[in-house]
Amino acid sequence: MLALITGAVDDRSARGIAAAVSRLVTAGQLTAGTRLPTVRDVARELGVSPTTVSEAWRSLTRAGAIQTRGRSGTFVAAPVLPRQRWRYSQLGGQAAAVTRDLSTGVPDHDLLPDLTDALKRLGDGRLTSSYLDEPVLPALETVLRERWPSPPEQLTVVDGALDALDRVIASVVRFGDHVVVENPAFPPLLDLLQTVGATVVGVPMDAYGMRPDLLHEVLDTYPAVAVFLQPRAHNPTGVSMPQARASSLAAVLESFPDVLVVEDDHAGDIATAAPVSLGSSLPTRTVHVASFSKSHGPDLRLAAVGGPARVIGAVADRRLLGPGWSSRLLQGVLLDLLTDPAAVAQVSKARSTYATRRATLLTELHSRGVTATAADGINLWMTVDDQQIAMVALAAHGIAVSPGSPFCVAPLGADHVRITAGLVASRFDDLADVLAGAALLNRRGSGPRARPHPRGWR
Q1: Which residues contact 89 (CB under 8 A, 6 or more apart)?
Q2: CA-to-CA distance for 442 and 177, rounded, in angstroms?
Q3: Neighbours of 231 (CB within 10 A)
Q4: Element (H, E) at 380
Q5: Domain 2-76 CATH class label
Q6: Interior CA angle at 207 toward 203 and 211, to 5°?
């Protein structure tokens, strides 16, 4: 066992040792339950410090690849990451009697376009002639390319934005690779990166998105393989990136030619801001994901992913050995919704409604002295004195929100909660009273916010 591990190491840094062990686990040469040699034995054989091996072991432990069982030793872990360790699992409402769940991050069902006519027009749905048909309906690909923020070299359709991110990560990120994300970032993305053993580095944001100066600083320090961005309606902050910021970020990345850009445009057509992409400046290095879950329906389970053929081709080819393609019936429904004037008008109305709801709730909160952002999309990011106290206080009113900590790659200097403002259609003043009371609990009775709280949110 010792010879197997040390023989696989070609880079004697902590990262290199961890990567070698990870490769052996992935290849099945180190199976779940296998006891690893001691840190001192590995260090002696490789001629490195035990501290270096210990650091490698810590990296593997964080990634869920190995586990320590006290004096019994260190073992190769089962390959599945326990759900309770996922950031994503922490987002759901925990209130015992939730009457208003604003933790979900899902769109308002009543604002989604009606699928009835689209399904009728689809007819008998004979859209597949062979298992080797192209993965995207030709007519849908034409429409998608017309909508793309910059011309993609290749384009395919997958089962939602997270499926796209999962498949792109599997194609381009390896154990120990450095990956750059926004801070805060979407928890499922951080979970996906953790499952492959990536080292995630967060870059702070301002009102226009990721800060270019800090991105340059991070890329100067870490040999990153990819940068992940949300160009519009950033989840959780709602920030949308203007073209000027996209150009500034692209200018920074020009100096780092080996870094891939992956954009998650999850809000799609309900985003108020215009589509934007670094692909306009970096067409051979930008993968863009366009989701239709929030605009046209989560159960369509569709997102398009486009960019350089070396990445998109690898994603499409790998899918041939699994699902093969995303349902062409659902692709036909999406094509109809994207081209039917009535459906287009429904989505436009939803976009306007979400903007009104965000702005109304944000105004009410600001008038009560609460700091919050909700520039685009369906979410609102609210600063609170204490995350746990705020969530308990809201639960007492039957309101569930998402804690801010799972979104944070590194501490932000203040606690936050995420609220799905897009689901709030009425009683904004009453809700703002409850939210403000929870946000400013340590300062109750001070400032313009001191209004009596309603008994609950019913």
Answers
A1: 83
A2: 42
A3: 31
A4: strand 380-384
A5: mainly alpha
A6: 30
Task: Give which of 432, 457, 425, 458 is closest to 107, Cα–Cα.
Answer: 425
Residue partners of 68: CB distance under 8 A and separation at least 6: 57, 61, 74, 75
Output the pTM of the full model. Answer: 0.83
Pick from 356, 353, 360, 408: which is nearest to 383 by CA?
408
Beta-ladder partners of 424: none
The Cα angle at residue 278 between residues 277 and 282, in degrees rounded to 5:
135
Instruction: Output Rg (C-alpha) for the chain, integer angstroms.
Output: 24
CA–CA distance, 402 with 106 (Å, rounded to integer): 12
User: Please, what is the end-to-end C-alpha distance for the chain in angstroms?
Assistant: 62
Give the Cα separation of 435 and 454 in Å (integer).
11
Q: Per-residue pLDDT for the chain (458 aa), expressed as one digit of tens each?
A: 899 999 999 999 998 999 899 888 877 898 888 999 999 999 999 999 999 999 999 888 877 788 888 778 899 986 655 555 677 777 765 545 678 899 999 999 999 999 998 988 887 778 888 888 889 999 999 999 999 999 999 999 999 999 999 999 999 998 778 999 999 999 999 999 988 888 899 999 999 999 999 999 999 999 999 999 999 999 999 999 999 999 999 999 999 999 999 999 999 999 999 999 999 999 999 999 999 999 999 999 999 999 999 999 999 999 988 899 999 999 999 999 999 999 999 999 999 999 999 999 999 999 999 999 999 999 999 999 999 999 999 999 999 999 999 999 999 999 999 999 999 999 999 999 999 999 997 665 444 443 444 434 43
Question: Under CATH, which number does the domain 127-339 receive?
Answer: 3.40.640.10
Helices 387-396 & 428-439, crossing angle to 10 degrees?
140
User: Buried b vs exposed e over 37-74: b needs ≥16 C-beta within 10 Å?
Assistant: bebebbbebbebeeebbebbbebbeebbbbeeeeeeeb
Torsion sign (Cα): 19, 21, 24, 28: negative
| CB proximity list for 201: less than 8 A, separation 6 or greater | 178, 179, 180, 181, 218, 222, 224, 409
Domains 2-76 and 85-105+343-443 share a fold: no
What CA–CA distance (Å, rounded) separates 454 from 300?
A: 39
318: how many CB neighbours lie within 10 A of its CB? 12
Closest by Cα among 434, 437, 455, 435 to 445: 437
Question: Facing residues of 287 across strands?
Answer: 262
The CATH architecture one would assign to domain 85-105+343-443 is Alpha-Beta Complex (3.90)
Q: Show me where the domains of the chain are located.
A: 2-76, 85-105+343-443, 127-339
How does DSSP classify residue 87?
Answer: S
